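Model: Ready when you are.
Researcher: Fold this.
Model:
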Amino acid sequence: MSPDPAPLEAHIDLLQSFLADRDQIVEKIQGLLNAQGKPAHSLHDRPQLARQFEDLFFGMAVPADLIRLRGQLQQAHWASGFRPRVMPGIPNEMFDPADMITRAFGLWQHTRWPGRNGRIRYAHTLFNLYVIRCLALLTMRLWDVGADARGKLAQVQAVLDQLWKSSPADQPVLVRDVRWLVPVALSPTTDDLGPYFTVAQHIAESLQQDDRLEIHKATVVMAGGHLRSQLRHYNMQGTSLDDPCLILSTRGSNALDFAMTIQNLVPLLAAYEDACSGDDHHRRLELAGVICQGVSPDPELFVNRIDLLGPYSMIEHLFITEDKGRAIYTPIGMRHIRLWQEYATRIARVSKRLLADCPIFRPLPGSYSPYGVMFGFSSNLFEHMSMKTLQPDAETRFGIEDVFSDAQPDAARLAWVGSWRKLPHIRQEVLKLYDYPQQFAEAMYDRVERALRRSNDSSRTLPAGHMYIATKTAGTQELPVEFILSSDPQAVAAGRAKSCDEAQLLHDRLEGMYMVSYQTPHGWTAISKDVLTNLLGAGRDATICGLPDTAAEVLDLMCALRP
């Protein structure tokens, strides 16, 4: 647990003081938006706009003991290990009102500057966005020292409810359930992966079942949507969804997403089984839809190749450590192994029921399906919804929960999602790229149904190779050099590995992209997870010789997972 920067109640009091002064703050925000005729550089000075924007909140009659809270939620979040990685050219922050101001200025410069009513409308949106951002960060403080997570979550929800009661009717709801803000707060990419598992354990140990399940649902569908969006990005560039290189790339680079999806799916699968046993039809279909969305980025891996999913979801430096010269699982690793084993048992047990339920989620022409939504991080969805309030005909009925709902396909949500990027300053060729992809949505669904059908076909036997470590076994083939990467020039010159820049190798190691990695006298060497699909998944055996003792033990722990 991170140290409590201030009691959670104090932050709630601060947000309530903002809500009490809403009209005055919104008036000041519209003044900030009245930037026509100001120097061009000031319209794009995001740091200055961020300071000016927050000054409008803390310049009101905020009690002196609450002013000191300014910036503390953000700093506490970063101190907990969630400081966003700097990614040049790629936005990697949770939605920020100052950024939304610069985007509005960009639109107005290309079209026309709005009058007071237009500015007031967008000012309310920015006010809502700022409070929601604070609430998202506040959900990360539920587990600070002295906090009662169950009670505090209800208090945070009460602030969100109060926000919408004070909001004009022409404002989009954005989010109704504060529990959906937990995965949003975790969405930016970071260098440290350990804190994600810490939060997952806090959720499992400190919240009531209904709260846990709702967070698990939100996390699974957002992660599934994020990974499907990656596939859509490559598909738009002409890459087939079945392209072997795409399969290897997505499997090898998503260890964290795979691990967190497994850990969140386990309680959802348990709840699904309970709903099936209890004949709760509505609950059964709701959970079936979430589960299918969760496995949809790679249903063959998540349904039929659990033997490969285990090693793909392992993160070597987090899950394995050394004790008295021996490689052992860390507590985080042991918890993940247990949950992976439970996942393997449960998905096998419910696959027939999922196959029976999934046809209701088939994307229909003219209706919306979450299988077709495209976004970078979940926080981008708030940006899309907020930008639309720059136009008077923006849809206000739907929020982020509706993006992932597949219970009732309808044309209204299709029009809503399809309108996000339809702003007057966006070029037609760009708009065409981001048209709702009906064919892609159908392909995503079809992959899920095919995987479930194969899992229930008793005549189909999947090939399963074995990896042998250190000792050659008759009939096996030593691991081809294409799977071994090294920054050690001697290993490369001797033909024992492919050359890899050391900084890149160490970065990829922290991302969980290797089966094992170890330091040599002249650099680092690693074994790619591509071996899982290209060799073991194809039914071929392989032998690895010459590993240091500890590396051999680590590899054994990484590969020892069997359903």
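Researcher: Now this one.
Model:
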Amino acid sequence: MPCPVAFAGCGTITFMSTETAPITTGATPRPAALDPAAVETDTEPHAPAAGPPVSGPAASTVTAPPAGAARGPRLAALQHRDYRLYWSGSLVSQLGSQMSSVAVSWQVYQLTHDPLMLGLTGLFTVVPMVLFSLYGGVVADALDRRRMLIVTQLILLCTSLILAATTLTGVISVWTVFGVVAIQGGVAAFNNPARSALIPNLVPREHLTNAISLGVTSWQVASVVGPSLAGIIIGGAAHLLGSSGVGVVYVIDVVSYTAVIGALALIRAATQPLDRRPISLGSALEGLRFVFRNPIMSGTMLLDFFATFFGASMLLMPIFATDILHVGPQGLGFLLAAPSAGAVVSAVIVSSLGHVRRQGKVVLWSVAAYGLAWVVFGLVPNFWVALLALAGTGAADTVSMVMRQTIRQLTTPDELRGRMTSVNMIFFMGGPQLGELEGGIVARVLSAPWAAITGGLGVMVVTGLVAWKNRAVRTYEA
């Protein structure tokens, strides 16, 4: 199953998917987490004027990619056997994970009919992930990443198998779901940094950007197709199997894991540098120091955290589908797929523009647009307007994600890849998943529409504060 998260990215539920978008994505990835390409890749040295230059041994090894590398064939990364295997297996697994994310949210609401319990789903995911994330980044920089991923994927397969078995036998409870997503959150803390650091080992440096864009494409396609299929299967299977229709989706997710595990087993490339780093607290703190001493890195991560904290309303979609828009599980699938549909359109447009200037301002405006789209979604109780507004959240978030990832690619040395990803994962996953708890509380106290409205307004306020206080972000241009 995917998680936004190592691609960006939000496990069984999208926000904590382990085969998903780059970790920089801000949408609720669901997640997380979610957090775009499967990697926060680091391809060029660059220290913006507003931030300190990279120093120390890590900086000395960062080299620029060959001139003209970005102009390679559109599918250049797929020319390489190992990446082609990994990309194909990940695409299948992502489809299963996106379907499973719909099943989890639908099942929790059907079991409890309580928006707060939907919010707790995110909390049970994010706590173990945050607790282990820094250690996971250190391990990803020290051990063989391919073998590490095979182990984490096998564990995640077992968690989906538990959900499938308990659902189909009728012994499922909301606490079973919470226990499973907690395990998935802990595993994601090790899985996502390893995935982020693996991709550059599968393709040459000049094809790395293409590998990232292909990863974004597969994740977005899975995010559109997966939820729609899940809604159809849950609704259709329910007529034949009763409530066990959700269990069918979990079974499909279990099978989908075998694709990425098989691909990882067949990869032949050396996936770990020879100069392995020690697994220690000092190594973890090195990644933290790098992020927080650079105002560009810390500013964009803080913006990501607080914007997704206030704008995390995707976990409330079962309430909108059932009680507000009255569209059932089929409509729920389309609602959950709409942000990714908007993201696909946005990604195509952005990729056709070439070099984008004033990336810092683009990040700020796109995050503000993300908040505005949530306000519109909450204000207008119409299914078609809801689809357009959700597509707007995905489109705006993709623009922001691409710009943030570009900035991080230009500021992170290779030796800190796993640890930078683990720090970023705390922001990328912590924001939306804690935000889902906040959204659940607001939905219970006020209503689900007001949770979306107040959350969107909160995103806009946070964006204004960052634009005012952090000149480095506001004026950044590579």
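Researcher: Key takeaway?
Model: DSSP finds 16 helices and no strands in the chain.
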